[in-house]
Amino acid sequence: MSYRPPTPVPAARAILLATVAALIASALLLLATWGVRAYIGAYHPTPDANIGAGMLLTALPLFLAPLLSWPLLRLLRLPHPGLTALISVPPLLVLSFVGLMLWVEVDVRMPIDSAYTSVDPLLTTSAVDAVVLVLSLAAAALVTSRLHAARHVREHGADG
User: Fold this and answer.
1) Does residue 72 contact residue 21 with C-beta atoms inside 8 Å?
2) What predicted TM-score, i.e. pTM, was given to this entire model?
3) Would you write out the chain's pLDDT as a tens digit for each of its 160 residues?
4) Which residues 6+ apart lie within 8 Å of 121 measured at CB?
5) Element at 42 (helix H, strand E)
6) Cα distances (angstroms) measured from residue 126 to each of 91, 96, 107, 119, 155
7) How many other CB atoms sit within 10 Å of the CB of residue 78?
8) Among candidates 20, 11, 32, which has minimal Cα distance to 134?
9) Quick one: DSSP state of residue 113?
10) Whether 34 contacts 57, CB under 8 Å
């Protein structure tokens, strides 16, 4: 069942709620990837396992972000949380690819002795994932909140 408030949610509020949900989901995804990395490091220390782990840790947020976003959007009472999470998937895929390519370019161009290289790469990729998730969920929330507002006007009139 999808939550639908009796009156439309303003666009700014929808974007704010989606941003909050995206940041919470990003923090949970960071904890999940840290846990997976700790498990793999403890039980599978061979380089071959670590290559596969790197691929898994890169893909994990991409697949789990929409699944984590839906209950968070529902908890924050954004209209149509399931539809919002579903609509956010295509921009999430595109923006994740663009974000990953930009992250690789920045990572390659950083000097080896810079402060950037002392930061855990998991934190920097998580920051990119957080920005991507905020952008895609905010855009999806804007679309669904405007659809909800248009439906409200059709059903109740402009005064309703």
Assistant:
1) yes
2) 0.86
3) 566 666 788 989 999 999 999 999 999 999 988 888 888 778 877 766 677 777 877 888 888 899 999 999 999 988 889 999 999 999 999 999 999 899 889 888 888 777 777 778 888 888 999 999 999 999 999 999 988 888 878 887 766 5
4) 107
5) helix 11-43
6) 17, 11, 14, 12, 42
7) 29
8) 20
9) T
10) no
Residues composing the chain: 160
Phi-psi region of 119 (alpha: psi -120 to 50; beta: other; left: phi over 0): beta
CA dist 27 and 34 (Å) reads 11
Count Cβ neighbours within 10 Å for each residue of 89-112 and write b for 16 or more, e otherwise.
eebbeebbeebbeebeeeeeeeee
